[in-house]
Please model this.
Amino acid sequence: MDIKLEVQNIKKIFNGRKIFSDINFQLENKSALAITGRNGSGKSTLVKILAGVLSPTNGQVDFYLNGKSIDLQNRYQYFGFVAPYLQMYDEFTAMENLELFARIRNIEVDKDYIDLLLKRVNLYERKDSYVREYSSGMKQRLKYAFALLHKPPLLILDEPRSNLDAEGISVVYQIIQEQKQSGCVVVATNDSEDIQFCNQEIDLNQFRNIAK
Amino acid sequence: MVFKIILGIGLTLVIIAGIALPMVSNPSSFFELPVVPGLEDKARIIFFHVPTAWVCVIAFITSLIYGIQYLRTKEILYDIKSVTAAGLGFLFCILATVTGAIWSKFTWGAFWNWDPRQTSIFVLLLIYGAYFALRSSIEVEEKRASLSAVYSIIAGLTVPFFIFIIPRIVSSLHPDPIINPQGKIHMNPTMLVIFLSSLTGFTAVYYWMFNLRVRFSKLLYQQQMKEQE
Amino acid sequence: MNKIFNINSALTIFIKDFRSELRTRYALNALIMFVITTLAIILFAVANETPSIEISAGILWIVIFFSAMSGMARTFVSEEERGTVMTLHLIAKPSTVFFGKLLFNLILLFLMNIFTVVLYLILIPSFIIKSYDIFLLTIFLGTIGLSAASTIIAAIIAKSNTKGTLYPVLSFPILLPLLMIVIKSTKSALEGIEIAKAMGDFQVMIAYFVVITAVSYLLFDYVWKD
Ligand SMILES: Nc1ncnc2c1ncn2[C@@H]1O[C@H](COP(=O)(O)OP(=O)(O)O)[C@@H](O)[C@H]1O
Ligand SMILES: [Mg+2]
Model:
């Protein structure tokens, strides 16, 4: 699969306050982009705009799959997203959550694959516990299973290691590296360690696009 | 400036003419108005009440159109225009309701009769009220703008239903001798001129107030933007 | 149809809400109690009087309106409160979410209205239906119209600060034309009018449902997305 993400003149205003403007960049296959900047510089805002869950005030984000433009409404099929503010359904178990998500996505419910994902993030033993009984680190792990469920060509990670222990972080780094082999990754972070896999960086402190 | 002077003089003349010109049964000269059977002097309300109701509707439509423009462009200026129009519409809506109710007390004996046109203005009042209640409970400006635009579109689309529904339920008490469903106007030329001038004058006042307030809000907004820089 | 929204996905969203409701019983219990309490108050107020046809038809729809207002915002408000709006964004088209929620509200309101009408028929002896065909059609068309309008308004108020109080305030002007026509039609059912004479009313109700659903579909994106 050949993908391309093209960002043109993105600007976002919140309550009459400009968070950023004139953001331009392109992301092509087999690359990883780091979005950096201090707290409140708009990393999460930009990442949400890329994922299509927030609309920019100006500008546009285009997404191409094998050269074909995918409209905004259908992009969810190709994006995976992990963020601390993302929530799973508390009243369901991890397994039920993932099954529901697969059905809502209208993709085949592949139990073996779901098991595999849960084993990978080390939640398999607790797959039938309610999510409300999970610790925040466990919830974060579950979100990775959620993001990889549909094998997305583009993975967007906001603060990828929040709440995770050392073992969790190494799993995440593995995921990032694998994703880079098959598609693209966007990582919004403050951590210099998270950036090591990235070949492109946008520093929101300067609204600049620095190619490494 | 010239516009304001002409408007001021014009509306003064309309008000004087509307109140002072005598009503006679067979108007012969240009300064006499015809007697409306059953209403007599009470018919003079048409010069003031109908224009307020008219402006109320115009403002509603203006607000709706700017709301749609906002959704299309995300330019906050359109939201400023939309909410300004709605504010004026609300004001004129209250004026129309109050003048109507007072008149209704003297003509039909009660302030409120649920006559179809009273019902429609009441619904418009409710919509305006709901619109401002919604706006005041959303903090993020951009979200407030798009949600209130969506609400006014939905509300605007339900209003035409009253046109089909109300006649099925009740019949109107509103005076037919002057304005009726057939579109016939029983006014002598003088009355028509005053009525139309008043309509034009009120619309011009609305237009003037609208521009003034938009300018004011724009300046306020720009200043707020500057302070944040 | 799949171009507009995905039916399977919308059904799954409905099933998710339904299962979630069965586990938490948030709306259902409250709704049932709401209907019972309201009817009890009406019975006390009416005492031994026989309300006229106009009044009993009106009261029925007042009960339905306020019960709807107490229960139908839940689908959207709960997603907003739990912060799962973004999750839904990431797994389905906005229109799919809307139709899933609409379906949930439709079924919820149907169940509630059947319950309300049965109780009403038992408790208010003067409420005698002469034209069952008109009555059933009115309940059916009234329910779908009411769900359509209250679903999009629920999506709007879910984004505001004063969710609960704002809901009836925003809904009432939108629902008023529908309420006027269903009350009239219920009266016709009590008077025993032939169904042929009520066709005009039904057309208005159908048009109302179609217009509200279409405009909700077109505008939902702006509401759903931050
Ligand atoms: N819903 C919102 N309403 C108003 N302002 C917001 C909202 N979300 C974010 N912001 C503002 O946008 C800026 C960027 O926020 P965010 O993208 O979360 O920053 P980061 O992720 O880089 O820490 C902050 O100044 C924040 O105050
Ligand atoms: Mg952040």
About this structure: Chain C has nine helices and no strands. Residues A 43-44, 158 surround magnesium ion (ligand 2) (CB under 6 Å). Chain C has one domain: 2-225. The mean pLDDT of chain C is 92.
